[in-house]
Amino acid sequence: MALINDHYQKLQAGYLFPEIGRRVGAYCQANPDAAVIRLGIGDVTLPLVPAVVAALHEAVDEMASEKSFRGYGPDNGYDFLTEQIREHDYRRRGVAIELDEIFVSDGSKQDSGNIQEIFGADCTLSVTDPSYPVYVDTNVMAGRSGEANERGYYGGIVYLPANEDNGFTPGPPEQGVDIAYLCSPNNPTGAVASRQNLQQWVDWARENDAVIVFDAAYDAFIQDDALPRSIFEIEGARECAIEMRSFSKRAGFTGVRCAYTVIPKSVTGSNATGERVALHGLWARRHSTKFNAVPYIVQRAAAACYSPEGAAQTAEQVGYYMENARCIREGLGAAGFTVFAGEHAPYVWLKTPRGLTSWQCFDELLEKAHVVGTPGSGFGPSGEGYFRISAFNSRENVDEAIERIGKAFGG
Ligand code: MLT
Fold first, then answer.
1. Which CATH architecture fits 70-305?
2. Whole-prediction pTM value?
3. Nearest CA, atom 4, ligand 1
4. Which residue from 52, 111, 181, 385 has the least number of CB within 10 angstroms?
């Protein structure tokens, strides 16, 4: 008899975004004339920039010739990409990373979901609440939680409320946990962690022998150069942190797929006999066993994001989305909503009007304004009563959505 992994049965409902897709699909089927504007899932809408397209074409031509054809790529990624990453994303910001500490992958969603595999089954974890659902769901699947209670909290997981009182950037937990998930700029709240906040986390992790899993998938949206883009800009982080970054949002790669994870060799955990073991070696083993490298063509495309033209063109795209975020923040603020963030992230976080629950707000927004957003409660219990609006869409659609929401809810 094939017994199932019954931890899966602890999961509540389906994964958030397919669930939203299902509800929107049903609504559109019942209301075929509704011109629905999607500001729900954070999926890019602008096409790939010319420098990336040129690199893709060139790489396809290389693959078409016997002389330059490539088969399996190196496990960690081609040097032509990891060297660019090390130089532009780290060295230029004063951070020293070794080339083989970078693992190129096909997405931060996968990496942030898979990283838990290298930790013991009994490890405890904390998440800021709300948070990207992948962190909690993958640990539930792996058996690191009890059942969820009626409010949606899984037993055994430490939830750190991110709220107005702490500027949506909570500090470390009081109780000891082994793995702490952090995301800055934050999905879903759009809040960005200060250097002081991250230093507090790193100091705590070192004192408590914990590992920080730092998701920086939205780092390119930070507008203030003084804010940390990488946890490794923080003193001591090389001893206790793992970082994920992605080309998805910064260069429109959600359908192309390329990201990377950095694991310094100095980050260790304990084995059962108390010996220290480098996490780097464990992840390298996992990566080479379960993954066969990002396609050559895609890695060439990612490397093109660092050329002067590629950097300028992708920065312009980020600027376009950030202008959308500004319009949403100001437009909905003027319509009477209480809005947060959207200054260093492509997400605006708002309080639902009239005390609606997050899903009630989702339904009303869809029915009255034909606009799709994301219910805050889908990201964790402390997201209840909040709502996320994504800035990934055309300016025309964003302007139209703001106007419709203002008319439907304004006051
Ligand atoms: C989101 O909308 O939260 C993101 O698009 C999800 C993701 O990047 O996987």
1. 3-Layer(aba) Sandwich (3.40)
2. 0.97
3. 42
4. 385
